C-alpha cells in the first residue's frame, strides 16, 4: 500500500513539476487552482463518501465491489456536471480556465473510478491491483508529456489533458479488475446502507479540502495569483515528505480496519507510520537547504525565486505533519468518524484564518507562517483525540442479528456456485 501511494503521488508530482517548468508563473497559478478544484470535488465527494467508507468496511470490497463502483459513478457524474457548469461560467471571464474546468468535469467519472478502484484493492488486501492502476497512469502521463510538445505547445489546456486524460484511461482498467457494474449496481443503494459513516466522512473531508481550495482563492484575492503560485510551489516541495506520510498512514488505517486491531496493535501501526514519516521529514528538511539555485530553477523554472524565502517554513511544516502521522488514519480505521469530523472542521478554520491573515500581513511568506501556526494547533488536537479514544475502553461492535457480512446479495447464483466450487488454498 505504501509503494502504491508513493507511485500515485509521484504521478501528480511529475505533472506539477512539469507545469512549473513549462508554464508561466501566472498560468502555473491557474493550473494549481484547476487541480485544487479537482482535489476538492474528488476528495470531498468521492474519496470521503466512497473510498474511505469501503476501506473501513472491507467486507463490502470483498463481496460487493461493483455496487461500490456504481455509487461512485453516480456521485462523480453529478460532480462532473457541476464542474462543467462552473467552467461554462468561467468562460465569460477566462476562456482558458473555463475550457480546462469543463474538461475536468467530463473526465471526472473515470477519474473517480480509478480513485475508488485503488481503495477497493486496499480493502481487499490486494494492493498489487492498485499498483497496476497507478503505474499505468504514471506511464501514460510521461508518454503524454513527452508526445504532446511534438505536435503543439504544452499550454494550460494540454497540461490538463496530460494529467486528467491519462488518469481517465487508467480508470478503465478498474472494470477489468472488479467487473463492470450492472444495471442494479449503478445506484446509490450501497451508499445509503453506509450513510451513517459516509456523511460524517464527507463533512470531515470537505473541511480539509476547503483549506486548499478556498484558502488558495482567498490568498489570490488578498495578494494575487503570484502569491498563489509561490504558496503552491512551496507546498510542492513538501511532497516528498507528505507523499510518504499519506502512504504509510493509509496503509495503517486499512490494516487497522481489516485486522480489527486492539489498542496495542493500533499503536504499533500508528508508531510505525510516525517513525517513517519523521525520518523522511527530517531528510526533506535538510535537503531543502542544500538545493542549489541552478537545480531549483531546473525543477520549478521561474517560480523558484518566489519559493526560496519560504524554505524554513516548508521544513517546519513537514516536521509538524510528521509528528501526527497515522493518527487520523488510525481513528478512521476504528470508525471514529465523529471525532475525525470535529478535528477536521477545527483544523479547517485554523488553517484558512492563518492563510488569509498571514497573506494580508506578508503575502506568500505570511500565509505560510499563518498556516504553520494553524497546523501546529491542529496536530495537538489530533493527539488529544487519539488519547481520548484509547482511554475510552472502546470495543469493536458485533454485527446486528441478520446483518449480512459478506455482501452475497451482490452475486448471481452462478457466481456463488462458482465460488463454492473453487479449491481451498
TrEMBL record:
Membrane-spanning ranges: 32-55, 67-92, 98-119, 131-151, 157-176, 273-291, 303-322, 343-361, 367-386
Subcellular location: Cell membrane
Phosphoprotein keyword on record: no
Domain of life: Bacteria
Record's keyword terms, sorted: Cell membrane, Membrane, Transmembrane, Transmembrane helix
Coiled coil: none
Protein name per its UniProtKB record: Lipopolysaccharide biosynthesis protein
Membrane topology, as annotated: Multi-pass membrane protein
InterPro entries the record matches: Poly_Biosynth_Transport
PANTHER family reported in the protein's UniProt record: PSMA PROTEIN, PST FAMILY PREDICTED COLANIC ACID TRANSPORTER
Organism: Nocardioides panacisoli
Amino acid at each position: 500500500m505504501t509503494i502504491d501511494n508513493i507511485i500515485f503521488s509521484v504521478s501528480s508530482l511529475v505533472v506539477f513539476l512539469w507545469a512549473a517548468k513549462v508554464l508561466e508563473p501566472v498560468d502555473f497559478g491557474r493550473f494549481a487552482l484547476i487541480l485544487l478544484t479537482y482535489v476538492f470535488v474528488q476528495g470531498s465527494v468521492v474519496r470521503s463518501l466512497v473510498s474511505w467508507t469501503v476501506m473501513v468496511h472491507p467486507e463490502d470490497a470483498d463481496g460487493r465491489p461493483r455496487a461500490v463502483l456504481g455509487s461512485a459513478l453516480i456521485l462523480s457524474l453529478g460532480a462532473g456536471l457541476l464542474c462543467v457548469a462552473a467552467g461554462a461560467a468561467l468562460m465569460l471571464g477566462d476562456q482558458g480556465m473555463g475550457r480546462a474546468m469543463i474538461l475536468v468535469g467530463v473526465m471526472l467519472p473515470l477519474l473517480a473510478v480509478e480513485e475508488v478502484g485503488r481503495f477497493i484493492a486496499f480493502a481487499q488486501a490486494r494492493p498489487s491491483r492498485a499498483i497496476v492502476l497507478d503505474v499505468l497512469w504514471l506511464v501514460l502521463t510521461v508518454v503524454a508529456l513527452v508526445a504532446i510538445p511534438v505536435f503543439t505547445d504544452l499550454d494550460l489546456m494540454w497540461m490538463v489533458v496530460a494529467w486528467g486524460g491519462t488518469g481517465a484511461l487508467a480508470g478503465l482498467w478498474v472494470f477489468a479488475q472488479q467487473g463492470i457494474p450492472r444495471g442494479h449496481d449503478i445506484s446509490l443503494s450501497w451508499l445509503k446502507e453506509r450513510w451513517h459513516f459516509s456523511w460524517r466522512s464527507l463533512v470531515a473531508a470537505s473541511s480539509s479540502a476547503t483549506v486548499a481550495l478556498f484558502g488558495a482563492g482567498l490568498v489570490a484575492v488578498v495578494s494575487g495569483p503570484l502569491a498563489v503560485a509561490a504558496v503552491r510551489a512551496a507546498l510542492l516541495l513538501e511532497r516528498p515528505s507528505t507523499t510518504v506520510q499519506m502512504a504509510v498512514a493509509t496503509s495503517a488505517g486499512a490494516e487497522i480496519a481489516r485486522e480489527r486491531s486492539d489498542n496495542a496493535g493500533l499503536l504499533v501501526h500508528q508508531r510505525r507510520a510516525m517513525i517513517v514519516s519523521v525520518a523522511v521529514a527530517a531528510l526533506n528538511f535538510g535537503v531543502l537547504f542544500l538545493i542549489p539555485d541552478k537545480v531549483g530553477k531546473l525543477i520549478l523554472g521561474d517560480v523558484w525565486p518566489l519559493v526560496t524565502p519560504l524554505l524554513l517554513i516548508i521544513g517546519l511544516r513537514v516536521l509538524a505533519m510528521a509528528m501526527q502521522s497515522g493518527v487520523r488514519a488510525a481513528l478512521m480505521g476504528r470508525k471514529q468518524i465523529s471525532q475525525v469530523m470535529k478535528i477536521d472542521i477545527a483544523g479547517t478554520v485554523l488553517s484558512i484564518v492563518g492563510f488569509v491573515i498571514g497573506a494580508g500581513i506578508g503575502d506568500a511568506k505570511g500565509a505560510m507562517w499563518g498556516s504553520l501556526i494553524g497546523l501546529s494547533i491542529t496536530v495537538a488536537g489530533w493527539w488529544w483525540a487519539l488519547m481520548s479514544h484509547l482511554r475510552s475502553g472502546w470495543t469493536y461492535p458485533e454485527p446486528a442479528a441478520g446483518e449480512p457480512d459478506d455482501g452475497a446479495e451482490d452475486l448471481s447464483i452462478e457466481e456463488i456456485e462458482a465460488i463454492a466450487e473453487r479449491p481451498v488454498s
